[in-house]
Design brief:
InterPro entries: YdeI_bac, YdhG-like. The protein is of the alpha+beta class and 198 residues long. The protein is 42% helix and 16% strand.
Length: 198
């Protein structure tokens, strides 16, 4: 499917929900939010921060609230579409008759107020501590240069290597992985560096 370069094009691409998307757009643009296009879909921002977006799919259309986790949701209209989208909440519709304009506008205004208040779910930072598998610890005791090379890597690269060995189920696989990664660590490379410039 072609990607939209304007909101009007987006609505044309999903013409089976055209009138419904126009209705949502009119409600949203009646507020102070600025309309833009991100990820080839309409997104509405306040002072450059994403507040909400509209989307159309095969069997439904929706409003995405980027920090919807903070909305009161008294009407039980919001859903978390995926486990990994901790802050996002989606208000789904299957037909234009599902759009209760005053209720939708109330949710939009609450999302704007939450943004003004700075309510934002920030991504969780991974712990900087690296859990070293015992096989790697043993290898470091036997080879100090290997340990120094590993210590000079970024915590992210260290974690990738540690997880790579720890994720192997069999001891033979763990030893095989250690033998393959040792030259890379000695060169100061990350586990996935060779793929990054492809």
């Amino acid at each position: 499917m072609a990607k939209a370069t304007t909101v009007d094009e987006y609505i044309e691409l999903y013409s089976h929900y055209g009138e419904a998307l126009k209705t949502l757009r009119q409600l949203i643009t009646s507020t102070e939010l600025e309309e833009t296009l991100k990820w080839s879909a309409p997104v509405y921002t306040l002072n450059g921060k994403n507040v909400l977006g509209i989307g159309a799919f095969k069997n439904h259309f929706c409003i995405w609230f980027f920090n919807g986790v903070f909305l009161k949701d008294d009407n039980q209209l919001l859903m978390n579409a995926q486990e990994k989208t901790k802050g996002l909440r989606q208000m789904r519709f299957v037909s234009i008759v599902d759009i209760n304009k005053p209720v939708v506008l109330a949710y939009v205004k609450e999302a704007i107020e939450n943004q003004k208040l700075g309510k934002e779910l920030l991504p969780e930072r991974k712990s900087k501590n690296v859990d070293l598998p015992s096989l790697l610890k043993e290898a470091f005791q036997q080879d100090k240069i290997f340990k120094q090379s590993f210590d000079s890597l970024t915590p992210g690269k260290q974690r990738e290597y540690a997880e790579h060995i720890a994720s192997a189920k069999r001891d033979n696989t763990k030893h095989s992985r250690l033998n393959k990664i040792k030259p890379m660590i000695l060169k100061g490379m990350g586990l996935h560096d060779k793929y990054k410039n492809c």
